[in-house]
């Protein structure tokens, strides 16, 4: 099996001691670094009301990253479509595509990307807090398509843009929809791995060729922390574990520094929950990571991996992405 493409998922994480301006500089540096290493895409995700994530204005940040890189594809992983009018997304991504031709991707999710009060603030309509995702997607595709003579509203820019649409999910819902519409599919194994195999199987079994794809194309998003030694990687990965521990407890704060041991921080049931939630995380030296990656690829047959890293120290983070790129360029096995 040939090595898959590798790409980057960045949430513009705000680390302890940093502000938003510093965070965006780190994201630009990561994008430029991974572009040089041969990563295929650099995606940013929409989240709101979270002190540790600075990618809320996702389209704005995509434009900034694209303006500071040259060849890497830049996009959303994803835009939470129910938060927006499809016309607005068509216009935003049509604008991005005009500014950066053949480099923009539009990954879509149907979750709110936030809590209920913020969802209410975003959507503002208490009687329509769960709009039909299938219908929103069709409307978006309509605005991205050709303009008819009888069409009263059109996306300028946006129409004829042909920005590639991806469907993202952590369940079988988006997998089924992506298959029926012949779209590429991304599974979010970096935070919800439980339905990964069933979703990928459903996607491939139900896939219908379309103008977009003639066969299924599946990407899997995973967390990865690589270092020169297993011990160093495990130390760096305590940042990821602290982050998820805070989420379990309903507490959000900036991305924390790594710690020598998680044992004083979690309770036994929290440890079990975290280990289950992070079961697909790649953590270790290059040799250890190679074994984990080969196993993941054997089980998923992924066409592409999207790597998310929660490493606190920027130099260690850049080094992790470098080690992974070297593994993949050597065809892993």
UniProtKB/TrEMBL annotation:
It is an enzyme of class 1 (oxidoreductase). Residues 17-245 form the Luciferase-like domain. GO terms for molecular function: oxidoreductase activity. Transmembrane segments: none annotated. Keywords: Oxidoreductase. Its EC number is 1.-.-.-. Pfam families: Bac_luciferase. SUPFAM superfamilies: Bacterial luciferase-like (SSF51679). InterPro entries: Bact_Lucif_Oxidored, CmoO-like, Luciferase-like_dom, Luciferase-like_sf. NCBIfam families: oxido_grp_1 (TIGR03558). PANTHER family: LUCIFERASE-LIKE MONOOXYGENASE. To bacterial alkanal monooxygenase alpha and beta chains. This is LLM class flavin-dependent oxidoreductase.
């Amino acid at each position: 099996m040939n090595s898959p493409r590798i790409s980057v998922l960045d949430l513009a994480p705000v680390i302890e001691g940093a502000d938003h301006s510093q965070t965006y500089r780190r994201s630009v540096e990561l994008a430029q670094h991974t572009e040089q290493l041969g990563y295929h895409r650099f995606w940013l995700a929409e989240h709101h009301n979270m002190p540790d994530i600075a990618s809320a204005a996702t389209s704005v940040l995509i434009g900034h990253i694209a303006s500071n890189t040259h060849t890497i594809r830049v996009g959303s992983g994803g835009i939470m479509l129910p938060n927006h009018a499809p016309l607005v997304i068509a216009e935003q991504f049509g604008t991005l595509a005009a500014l950066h031709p053949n480099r923009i991707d539009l990954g879509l999710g149907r979750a709110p990307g936030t809590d209920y009060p913020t969802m209410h603030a975003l959507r503002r309509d208490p009687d329509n807090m769960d709009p039909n995702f299938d219908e929103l997607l069709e409307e978006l595709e309509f605005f991205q398509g050709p303009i008819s003579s009888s069409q009263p509203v059109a996306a300028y820019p946006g129409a004829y843009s042909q920005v590639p649409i991806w469907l993202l999910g952590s369940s079988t819902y988006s997998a089924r929809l992506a298959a029926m519409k012949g779209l590429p599919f991304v599974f979010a194994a970096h935070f919800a791995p439980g339905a990964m195999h069933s979703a990928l199987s459903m996607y491939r079994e139900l896939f219908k060729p379309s103008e977009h794809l003639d066969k299924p194309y599946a990407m899997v998003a995973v967390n990865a922390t690589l270092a020169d030694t297993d011990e160093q990687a495990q130390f760096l990965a305590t940042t990821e574990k602290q982050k998820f521990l805070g989420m379990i407890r309903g507490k959000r704060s900036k991305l924390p520094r790594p710690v020598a041991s998680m044992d004083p921080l979690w309770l036994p049931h929290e440890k079990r929950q975290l280990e289950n939630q992070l079961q697909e995380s790649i953590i270790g030296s290059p040799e250890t990571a190679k074994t984990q990656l080969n196993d993941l690829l054997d089980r998923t047959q992924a066409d592409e991996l999207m790597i998310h890293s929660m490493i606190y120290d920027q130099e260690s983070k850049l080094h992790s992405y470098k080690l992974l790129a070297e593994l993949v360029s050597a065809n892993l096995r």
